[in-house]
Amino acid sequence: MTDQTISRANLQAIDSAHHLHPFTDHKELRGAGARMIVRSEGPYIYDSEGAEILDGMAGLWCINVGYGREELARVAYDQMKELPFYNSFFRCTTPTPVLLAGKLAELAPDNVNQVFYGSSGSEANDTALKLVRHYWALEGKPSKRIVISRKTGYHGSSIAGASLSGMDGMHSQLYGAVPGIVHVMPPYSFELALPGESEHDFGLRAARAVEDAILEAGAENVAAFIGEPVLGAGGVKIPPASYWPEIQRICDKYDVLLMIDEVITGYGRTGEWFACKTFNIKPDTITTAKALTSGYQPLSALLVGDRIASTLIEKGGEFYHGYTYSGHPVACAVALKNLEIIEKEGLIERVREDTGPYLARALAERIGTHPIVGETRAIGLMAAIEIVRDKGDRSRFKGKHAGDKVRDLSIDNGFMVRAVGDTIIMSPPLIWTRENIDVACERLLKALDAAEIELRRL
Ligand code: PMP
């Protein structure tokens, strides 16, 4: 912002007067005023008060290549001058979505070779839901409509996205979800494992909740299972190693399609291009967005497996679906350059071999030993910290909003994290170094110390 006359106070006044923020209690925010982020560089964001904050959330799980990338700005500028927009309807196309589709087919698992574009993860999941149901209709099995999802899974906030999501609050405001979506338990051993139950056994039990749902509905009525490889917004819930192989077995057994939502995990977060590789999942669809452009442009890509694609192409006729900005040329140009940066700088290998394991160790050794931390868990560069009152029995600070307290203190200490209930989560840019991880741990420790004093006193 260059116009000095637009002061922070002015901006906050306009924000309070006119701006309805996402996932916000408006009355509360208008009382407090929003934090104004005004500038960024590399792994840092800066607020209007001049505070430098290490961004542990990569924006909103998306800025994988970090802030301030000249190359991305340049490629967007060049594309805007050349051809800012043309659509992909009516037998037209433009070069960058074509090149990007080719690139994505190369990066995706072997059985996944087709791309449908949108602008957001929610749009991509809307596409996926329509597509899997249409697939079964085309295959002469129109009764296969039910989609099984998980409680606390997140798949977007459009009507279909929120219906697929397993968030109670969101469902309470849908006033009629998309029918035929069933939610089962998530693989969250910290809260849901039985006393004495091993991680392995818990993983199998959580997966078999999907089988139970299939049997209850009748396999002839079940279209697909949808899941994030690691539940993200639900609290970075990392499934036990036994979970995904069992899900795969169950889906294969009952001929249920596997819809994998990699809006967060796609493009390097778990140390592979896709977490499908990390967990050895054979998907029928992969929903991607966010890090596809590292958040520099809104863009999503639903990657479609050969099984669905060949039916759609061979028998489908017209698929009545698409968005004005499906295959937006500027967004696709930025995505191509972003993927090139990720490759050229070896960011995924770095996460897999160096910073990912280093983060997991640092959290376990430096944060996990804190008296109000019940568990730390990490995979690649996504992690969670469970805040508890008592490490022994994992009981929580009831009614004290301990997660919000730790988050606020952490931000005050210059480290941006997010709270999901009493779980602190992070998902830093893939450019993070060991030094960034060390700084994050120091700032978080200070926040935990201060939070403990306040929480035990309250
Ligand atoms: N799926 C997952 C796994 C997500 O985390 C999100 C967003 N956080 C979405 C879908 C929805 O994406 P968008 O907000 O771009 O619609």
TrEMBL record:
The keyword Cell wall biogenesis/degradation does not apply. It is an enzyme of class 2 (transferase). Pfam families: Aminotran_3. GO terms for cellular component: cytosol. InterPro entries: Aminotrans_3, PyrdxlP-dep_Trfase, PyrdxlP-dep_Trfase_major, PyrdxlP-dep_Trfase_small. Keywords: Aminotransferase, Coiled coil, Pyridoxal phosphate, Transferase. Residues 434-458 form a coiled coil. Belongs to the class-III pyridoxal-phosphate-dependent aminotransferase family. This is Putrescine aminotransferase.
